[in-house]
Amino acid sequence: MSPLAALHADLARLSQQERRRTLAPRRGVDFSSNDYLGLAGSARLRGAVAAALDRGVAVGSGGSRLLRGNAPEHEALEAAAARFFGTAAALFFASGFAANAALFATLPQRGDLIVHDALIHASAHEGMRLGRAACVAAAHNDAGAVEDVIVRWRRDGGTGTAWIAVESLYSMDGDRAPLAALAEVADRHDAVLLIDEAHATGVFGPDGRGLAAGLDGRDNVITLRTCGKALGCEGALVCGPAVACDFLVNRGRGFIFSTAPSPLMACAVEAALRIVADEPDRRARLWARVAAADALLAPVGVAVTGSQIMTLPVGDDGAAMAIAAAVQAAGYDVRGIRPPTVPAGTARLRISLTLNVEEPDIAGLADILREVRA
User: Fold this and answer.
1) Is 229 marked active-site?
2) Residue 140 annotated among the catalytic residues of the structure
């Protein structure tokens, strides 16, 4: 028997369940990326990278930040991000997954409690799995349910710190967390509010500072800003009190033992922050796309969410993937989303609105959805 027989068997089971994934090349009109503001290929961002190369910025960091990998570009980005988001400090990671995993594995301590939204991202679950704090899921977008968990925990003898973990804008549903109500819960219970702003950064808030913009700077709020979505780059920034970033530098294994991100990418992210601040027209044009999509796609069953992320509920895994395949064959890059990314029985098409599409593209997508679902 092959020593990898168990892996073959598991892949076979995934195939039988219509859940086996494969990599595919990009093709068709972009209705699946998270490049919401169209920055990934923008001339201004390319120019910033070219200018950094011209002045000798290295492509690679050469080591971890605590060895020789700490470049001036990393520190410049972190200072700029702290100013932009209004926090005491910021720390740059190579990806949002790495940042979330390190954050959840490091900051909550033994004896603490993490109350997380039931639909929080897999990266948070990975960090919680590696961490030492107790973890309890609360009903999605229900601040009262979060408070109930904390109250029960205190009543049963919990004496540590409570950490409330949410996404500000949920990537598979496009709905928003009740951040104001959650902040009040955190204040009442001396808790820390952890907000993943991955899909809100650059799109929402003054100057694109996200849905948590009004909460930044508080000593009980820590935010994660990924750089590979609306900012068009890669990496992530943990923003919050200086002690949180300092603790990650000293105790975060995912930071300490990882090669630092490219200094060139740090330059790109810093440029992206400037672009989202001084080109508000990008957000205006994106919201015009969202309004057009609301009008054109809702009649064919697409859920209107009030954000740039829309969904077409299907339910069955196989049916969702069949519809997605038909839409892709017609030239529109829309992806089917299945468990475990979403709960069982909730397979769907995820439709992402970006500046990489025009209103005629949205109308064409509506036509093909109407046709394949007839």
Assistant:
1) yes
2) no
Instruction: Please state, in angstroms and rounded to a whole number, the distance separating the CA atoms of residues 182 and 227.
Output: 25
Check if 70 is active-site: no
Quick one: CA dihedral 34, 59, 62, 225, positive or negative? negative
Q: Please pick, among 35, 117, 126, 196, the residue that the annotation labels catalytic.
A: 196
Q: Check if the beta carbon of residue 32 is closer than 8 Å to that of residue 335.
A: yes
35, 121, 141, 216: the catalytic one is 121
Strand-pair category, 89-93 with 236-240:
antiparallel
Question: Is it true that domain 57-277 has CATH number 3.40.640.10?
Answer: yes
Active-site residue, selected from the candidate residues 167, 197, 234, 317: 167
Residue 259 confidence (pLDDT) above 90: yes
Among all chains, which residue has been given the structure tokens 């090669």? 259
- Domain 27-39+280-372 in CATH: superfamily? Aspartate Aminotransferase, domain 1 (3.90.1150.10)
301 within 8 A of 369, measured Cβ to Cβ: yes
- pLDDT tens sequence across 190-224: 999 999 999 999 999 999 999 999 999 999 999 99
CA-CA-CA-CA torsion for 289, 295, 301, 302, nearest 10 degrees?
20
Domain ranges of the chain: 27-39+280-372, 57-277
pLDDT of residue 373: 82
For the chain, percent of residues with pLDDT exceeding 70: 100
Q: What is the pLDDT of residue 265?
A: 98
Catalytic residue among 123, 168, 171, 262: 171
DSSP character at residue 175: -
167 is a catalytic site residue: yes
Q: Residue 345 has which token pair?
A: 């029985």
Q: How confident is the model at residue 17, as a pLDDT?
A: 86
Cα–Cα distance measured from residue 108 to residue 131, given in angstroms and rounded to the nearest whole number: 7
Which residue in 42, 117, 229, 352 is the catalytic one? Answer: 229
Q: What does pTM read for this prediction?
A: 0.95
When the pLDDT of each residue in the chain is averaged and rounded to a whole number, the result is 96
pLDDT surpassing 80 at residue 273: yes
Residue 196 among the catalytic residues: yes
| Active-site hit among 199, 220, 234, 317 | 199
pLDDT at 25: 84
- Check pLDDT > 80 for residue 374: no
